[in-house]
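Lecture 7 notes: from sequence to structure.

We start with a single chain of 568 residues. Read the sequence below before looking at the structure.
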Amino acid sequence: MAFDGNFTGKIVKELEQALESHIDKIYQPSNDEIVLGLRKKGFAKRLIISVKSGMARIHFTEMRLENPDTPPMFCMLFRKFFSGARLVSVSQSGFERLIEFCFETSNEMGDRVTRRIIVELIGNQSNLVLVDHSGKIIDALKRSDILSKKRLIQPGARYSYPESQPKYDIKTNDTGFIIEKIKEKPDAQLSKAILATVGGMSPLIADEIVYSAGLSNVRVEETGDFKALKESIDSYKSACLSESTPFMLLKDGVPYDFSFMEITHFKGLCTGKRFDSYSELLDAFYFERAKNREQSRITGEVTKLVSTLIARTEKRLNNRKKELQDTKNREELRIKGELIKANISNINPGAAVITVQNFYDENLAPVMIKLDPSLNAQNNASKYFKEYKKRSVAAVTLEGLISDDITEKEYLETVLDNLSRCQTSAELSQIKEELRITGYIKNVGNKRKNKSPVPKFEEYESSEGFRIIVGKNNIQNDLITTKLASKNDVWFHTKNIHGAHVVVFSNGEELNEETVLFAAKLAAKNSKAANSSNVPVDYTKIKFVKKPSGAKPGMVIYTDYKTVFVTP
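Now the structure, written as tokens:
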């Protein structure tokens, strides 16, 4: 992330509008997040301070975060020392990612004292430290090891600033001087040499400087045009000193990175978006990031659940196939029972074995039959018939259970395939709802579940002007195929491959070849064969697509189809 020293300076400038405001509210939504309500005449804003790994930041926010019913101990201590405090200054330490708030408040004796909130936005070591008027630490969101040989961050310890890096401030140093310092690293990549020389700079900005100078992917000693480099650094310096515009990079519509200046070296890969304020930019960026992170977490959990269910079903299926194999010899049991009955008069009481001619064999080959000496001949025959009947019933039962297991495995594989193409929280919610309906996710308690949001269908238009809808999951597939489409619309699906239902709403009109290929490619693209070539896609009219009674979501059978081969 480009939350570097110079971006921090821009944030500090924006936070200055809160000067003279009082702390009205203090919340702690999570272990590493604090929200302060700041208020004065004509001004009321919420300030979020996050030291969460990968999401460390500070800005005004419009987001509403859920707070725990009981405030954590740190939050209660924060309230004790800072509730009602008046903000008298906000500053940045050098060009570091460190912001210091000074508040005027009263101590236990009623005397006016100054207390500080120090926010350190230093990657994985980000922290929020409360410091009293004497410079001692009240507490911190992240305490250090009490035996730490580095900085001691513990209540009662004297606060010391993080060690600064030996770099140069672009705002106070001449560009020519900066370039001379860069030249002292001849073997380094130019962008890395700039990063190691200039303080408060992120890799994103260093890459932008060399790109603007036309010097990407060169080492310092290979740099021929230092004039172009100087112009590029001067442009960066100007952006640092002036009121620049907050800028966000989006990749495939998703927030990718941000800066206090326009970034151009991702041309073709990312698009840019400008914001009116840095807080608005950070709100938008981290809201989407948090949402995507939460979606990734839930997707991972659901994917793990479905994968476990598939593995369990496969294990059960294999065990039942072995059991079915054990019933294959049941006909031999019936024959032995018949042979015992036919030779009752020749079997001596207490015999353990008998050898008789097998009249079921064309060669009348002799067969040896084991007997239970404690039973008479009639009961021995009955024992064989009973075992034959038991295995026959087991075979029929197992064949049905195996068929059910195969169907269940195929269904779960469609869910796993849908999850792999899931892009929005609404689509994910619908898949979870589907698993709840089918009994794979159980409702907790007696509370009635809110109906999951129905995401918009993925829609297209063919060259003939026909509307085309693509199902993103099994619930959508059922809705499109069995509810929305009429009997003469045309249905597409990859042949014997898990994928989406695609319907061309043709109103009974014949489709030309271009539309057929377009719809088939959509079906192939939204299937497990998305990265394959020459994918077979079946298509037929909706009237030939049937959903068997009791079938799981998305499962259908179809007839009277044609097949076309396409590459997604």
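The first helix runs from residue 5 to 15. Keep this in mind for problem set 3.
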